[in-house]
Design goal:
The chain is of the alpha+beta class and 278 residues long. It is built from six helices and 13 strands.
Length: 278
């Protein structure tokens, strides 16, 4: 029996490859966590770029976010009761009329078996004007298309500035409009993009990657994740620690170790580096 989603919503997620919107934060919670982000940006400007990956290792409040029952109940409905979180990060799109994400598939580089699922929670309203996500329903069944990192786009918010080079039909694409505190969920093979932010305010998206404990990384690679619900009887991933404090020396060291291990897989064969390293 699903905890949060109806059978129809579960069916829609598997059929379309995504589901939105799902309310997971109240107005008060959204204001609180957005305030935590803004306070971190003010206190630790030298570490803001690190929020691009594994933010739950730097901030106790992000560690709290990835464990919220309102989110995990939805995740459990889709992948079962034993859940790992592989990363949590922010994508902040500035109101410059240029920052965007080209058409891409997240799972092209994540390389887990079975794949994880990704959530995006709006910390402010996501509209067509400020560059909301665009999904092509059913595109998760196309398989992984060819991507290119050549001719890097300095205005891409993606780490590798990657974009799909195969021809495909985007005429059925839909805009994913979210109110603050609402979430979208998508499968890693979903073809998606987001247009430039042409509003007067930045668009703030908080993202987390969840997977079942029986998932595996490619042979020869060891990855790191955090158990956030249930039990892990497989131990395919090394365990990420709970942060000792916001941007503490211990948290920074744990962040560096975990990101190095993750990057060895995701950036294998690429000259690109995580935005957090730049």
């Amino acid at each position: 029996m699903p905890k949060r989603l109806s059978p129809q919503q579960v069916q829609r997620f598997h059929g379309d490859g995504f589901l939105a919107p799902v309310r997971v934060l109240s107005e008060e919670q959204t204001d609180h966590y957005r305030g935590c982000l803004e306070a971190f940006e003010t206190r630790y400007p030298q570490h803001v770029a690190k929020l691009d990956v594994k933010a739950y290792l730097l901030c106790p409040w992000v560690n709290e976010l990835v464990r919220l029952a309102s989110i995990l109940d939805v995740i459990e409905d889709l992948i079962g009761p034993n859940v790992l979180c592989a990363s949590s990060y922010f994508r902040v799109k500035q109101p410059d009329g240029r920052s965007h994400a080209g058409w891409h598939q997240d799972g092209k580089y994540i390389r887990l078996e079975p794949d994880l699922i990704l959530i995006i929670v709006a910390f402010n309203e996501h509209t067509t004007q400020n560059g909301c996500l665009r999904f092509i329903p059913g595109s998760h069944r196309w398989g992984y298309l060819n991507h290119s990192e050549t001719n890097p786009d300095p205005h891409s918010i993606l780490d590798r500035q990657q974009h799909i080079t195969d021809a495909f039909d985007d005429s059925a694409a839909v805009n994913v409009l979210l109110k603050p505190g609402e979430m979208s969920i998508h499968q890693p093979a979903m073809v998606h993009s987001s247009a430039p932010n042409c509003s007067k305010h930045r668009r703030i998206a908080w993202i987390a990657d969840y997977l079942p404990t029986h998932a595996r990384a490619p042979v020869g690679h060891r990855q790191v994740a955090m158990l956030v619900r249930g039990v892990d009887e497989y131990h395919h991933f090394e365990a990420d620690p709970v942060p000792s404090g916001e941007a503490s020396s211990e948290a920074l060291a744990a962040w560096k170790r975990s990101v190095d291990m993750t990057a060895a897989t995701i950036y294998e064969g690429s000259e690109a580096k995580p935005l957090a390293y730049r």
